[in-house]
């Protein structure tokens, strides 16, 4: 168990270091988030009140799109030179390989989210920093949900034809309950008029989603990676 | 044996359905508030219940495949999923027709409709990914994994659409809030049973196809090896 965790952290460190040196998915994902944010301003001609009403939904759509780009690379990164086979053959258990990948993707996506919050606040004139603490909790819970399911499906689709298309087809329907809760609670945070009791219920749902899918993925990933 | 069971189930299901349709369309009186359109309930609700039944069968078959690595379970999982998806489509289509008549719109983002639609999308993903994986063992393993993940999502979707800040336009479901008049109960229960029989027959047909396809695949592979 402890050895597995050490291996997971080593893999997470390796992934983060590779990514921070090459910045291949980080740059793509952050600029994609920016482009989508700009596109939204064309798509909807919004007044002050309306911006607040759709802010949470807009933000989480942008971030889940950016997340798909990041998790897509999680396992695909290991394909050249058969690195994935070596990882699976290494003494690290399959769940540790997966956990390491999920942790790395989590920090990368959080980084992209933090970067895109600045233009979001600027473009749409939303004072997200007033509720930064609560927003961080929602971001952490939701982002872990996105990356843990995303990394699991990244492992499933790594050898599939049309990988880049198949991952979103699988990922977004599964994420729907997570996104419904995250969008609702985030909009409530920005606009300040949340339905009483909705924030607590949403946070419970986010935490439940995280716990359930983390447990399922850690337990089942052996079948996906090893067979 | 399997072939005989398919015919028996299919014929029994069809006959019962015809009898039940006669009762529904000719014998039952119109419902007081909704008129004739209420009759959709005898197909709509049984389809929803049976969709869950077949998707649950697919879940059990997927778990069995991961545990036993026997391809029979993979074939059963995909067959049951396809029947489940078909029943979900029946459920959504009939619901939409009812909605057009009663609400005036085809689609209303009501909680129940949304949850069924999500369920449909989840399993469409499953059916889309399967053909993209060429190697049979890998395809079966990945499919089982996706099926388990998809089924685990259903209770969460149910929770998410009941959050206090989510819009609802609820039509008052019979099973949770009201009761069915004694007159309407027999065709309703027979309706559930009918779709179960027909669904089981269709699952067996698909199972047979899958088994044959696997045999052809392995023969082709043998031929290539020679």
Can you describe this structure?
The complex is a heterodimer of chains A (227) and B (226). With 227 residues, chain A is an all-alpha fold. Chain A has one domain. Chain A is globular and about 55 Å long. The model of chain A has no long low-confidence stretch (mean pLDDT 89). Chain B has a single domain, classed as Four Helix Bundle (Hemerythrin (Met), subunit A) (Up-down Bundle). Chain B has 226 residues and is mainly alpha-helical. Chain B is globular. Chain B has 7 helices and no strands. In chain B, helix 2 runs parallel beside helix 7 and helix 3 packs antiparallel against helix 4. The interface between A and B is large, with 39 and 33 residues.
How many runs of DSSP E, i.e. beta strands of chain A? Answer: 0
End-to-end distance of chain B: 34 Å
The average pLDDT value of chain A, as a whole number, equals 89
Shape of chain B: globular
Mean pLDDT of chain B: 86
CATH C-level label of chain B: Mainly Alpha
Can you tell me the overall shape of chain A? globular
Q: Pick out the low-confidence regions of chain A.
A: none
> What is the number of strand segments of chain B?
0
Instruction: State the CATH topology of chain B.
Output: Four Helix Bundle (Hemerythrin (Met), subunit A)
Label the structural class of chain B: mainly alpha
Report the total helices of chain A.
Answer: 8
Q: What share of residues are in beta strands of chain B? A: under 5%
Strand content of chain A: under 5%
Largest interface: A-B, 39 and 33 residues
Task: Please give the largest β-sheet of chain A.
Answer: none
Number of domains of chain B: 1
């Amino acid at each position: 168990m402890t050895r597995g965790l050490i291996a997971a952290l080593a893999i997470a460190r390796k992934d983060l270091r590779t990514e921070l040196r090459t910045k291949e998915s980080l740059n793509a994902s952050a600029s994609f988030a920016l482009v989508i944010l700009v596109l939204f301003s064309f798509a909807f001609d919004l007044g002050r009140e309306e911006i607040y009403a759709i802010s949470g939904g807009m933000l989480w759509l942008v971030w889940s799109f950016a997340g798909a780009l990041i998790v897509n690379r999680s396992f695909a990164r290991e394909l050249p030179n058969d690195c994935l086979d070596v990882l699976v053959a290494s003494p690290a258990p399959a769940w540790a390989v997966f956990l390491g990948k999920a942790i790395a993707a989590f920090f990368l996506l959080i980084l992209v989210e933090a970067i895109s919050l600045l233009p979001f606040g600027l473009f749409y004139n939303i004072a997200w920093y007033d509720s930064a603490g609560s927003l961080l909790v929602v971001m952490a819970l939701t982002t872990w949900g996105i990356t843990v399911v995303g990394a699991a499906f990244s492992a499933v689709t790594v050898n599939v034809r049309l990988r880049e298309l198949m991952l979103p087809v699988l990922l977004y329907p599964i994420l729907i309950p997570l996104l419904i809760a995250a969008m609702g609670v985030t909009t409530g945070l920005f606009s300040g008029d949340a339905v009483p009791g909705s924030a607590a219920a949403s946070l419970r749902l986010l935490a439940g989603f995280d716990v359930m899918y983390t447990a399922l993925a850690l337990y089942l990933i052996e079948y996906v990676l090893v067979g | 044996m399997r072939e005989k069971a398919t015919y028996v189930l299919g014929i029994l299901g069809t006959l019962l359905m015809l009898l039940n349709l006669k009762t529904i369309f000719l014998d039952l009186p119109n419902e007081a508030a909704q008129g004739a359109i209420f009759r959709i309930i005898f197909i709509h609700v049984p389809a929803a219940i049976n969709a869950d039944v077949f998707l649950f069968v697919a879940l059990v078959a997927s778990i069995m495949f991961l545990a036993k690595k026997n391809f029979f379970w993979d074939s059963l999982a995909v067959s049951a999923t396809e029947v489940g998806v078909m029943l979900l489509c029946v459920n959504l289509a009939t619901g939409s027709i009812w909605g057009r008549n009663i609400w005036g719109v085809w689609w209303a983002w009501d909680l129940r409709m949304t949850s069924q639609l999500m369920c449909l999308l989840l399993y469409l993903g499953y059916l889309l990914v399967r053909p993209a994986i060429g190697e049979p063992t890998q395809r079966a393993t990945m499919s089982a994994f996706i099926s388990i993940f998809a089924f685990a999502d259903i209770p969460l979707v149910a929770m998410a659409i009941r959050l206090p800040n989510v819009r609802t336009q609820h039509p008052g479901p019979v099973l949770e809030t009201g009761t069915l008049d004694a007159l309407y109960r027999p065709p309703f229960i027979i309706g559930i049973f009918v779709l179960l029989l027909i669904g089981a027959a269709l699952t067996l047909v698909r199972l047979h196809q899958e088994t044959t396809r696997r045999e052809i695949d392995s023969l082709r592979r043998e031929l290539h090896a020679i």
